[in-house]
Design brief:
The protein is about 40% helix and about 20% strand. The termini are far apart. The chain has a single domain, classed as Rossmann fold. It is built from 9 helices and 7 strands, in the order ααβαβααβαβαβαβαβ. By secondary structure, the protein is of the alpha/beta class. β4, α7 and β5 form a beta-alpha-beta unit. Bound molecules: S-adenosylmethionine. S-adenosylmethionine (SAM) binds next to α4.
């Protein structure tokens, strides 16, 4: 028993080191994320949260759900928004970072790749839902490849669900459809946690129309 606790503790310290040393997350952000992973409330791990506007709105409207939003926050040539979000993250100015802590007890932001978030950071059985909003197609496919791998269930709680909101209907892409074999694809969701994206992210000009929910068949 003691060995198991030691092993869990070592894994936790290793995860925190990666977030601090490799991804330069502030220690306070790391501690907050782990307290949300582990406090037993329903939680959502968002991958590729970008400017965090929609996630902050979801967190403010759903105080009983924990939101851990993650993004790789790296520049990409030709995509000025990524450089902007990265600079905002470094200076602690993303919406999710500036909200007063008493209003956003249930929200945390981590800089980490999708891969590392799922394989090295999330503690065992710590995630209820994975949320992916507006990824580029190749990012969606690489994230789905990883998210849908058989051993991902080790970090998911038994009632897990994956919510994907792509730019286009998933049925327009063969590779994505192949990846989704073995999963139930639910109806599109009119709203994600009460947030209509087309109202709150006007620049993107998209709605929730193609959002789907995935669970194991
Ligand atoms: C098109 S943006 C969508 C941002 C946000 N979800 C929205 O709807 O406004 C895609 C985001 O995915 C992030 N991203 C790309 N590759 C990633 C990866 N491997 N792991 C985590 N995030 C990644 C990018 O930095 C970017 O912020």
């Amino acid at each position: 028993m003691e060995e198991t606790n030691d092993e869990t503790q070592r894994r936790l310290e290793y995860s925190k080191d990666i977030l601090f040393v490799t991804y330069k997350n502030p220690k306070s952000a790391i501690e907050k994320a782990f307290s949300l992973f582990q406090d037993g409330s329903p939680n959502v791990l968002e991958i590729g949260g970008g400017n965090t506007i929609q996630t902050t709105l979801m967190a403010l409207g759903n105080p009983d759900v924990n939101f851990i939003t993650t993004d790789i926050y790296a520049d990409r040539p030709g995509v000025p928004e990524y450089a902007y979000n990265t600079a905002q993250w470094y200076s602690g100015k993303l919406l999710a970072q500036v909200n007063p802590p008493e209003r956003t007890r249930n929200l945390s932001v981590l800089r980490v790749s999708a891969d590392d978030a799922l394989q090295k950071i999330a503690p065992d059985k710590s995630i209820n839902k994975i949320l992916i909003v507006h990824p580029e197609l190749e990012v969606l496919n690489s994230i789905l490849t990883m998210v849908l791998r058989p051993n991902v269930e080790s970090v998911l709680r038994p009632d897990w669900e994956i919510i994907v909101k792509p730019y286009k209907p998933i049925s327009q892409n063969k590779r994505t459809e192949q990846l989704l074999r073995g999963f139930m694809v639910g109806d599109h969701l009119d709203e994600l946690y009460g947030v209509n994206l087309s109202e709150h992210v006007p620049k993107s000009g998209v709605s929730n129309e193609h959002a789907i929910s995935l669970t194991k068949k």
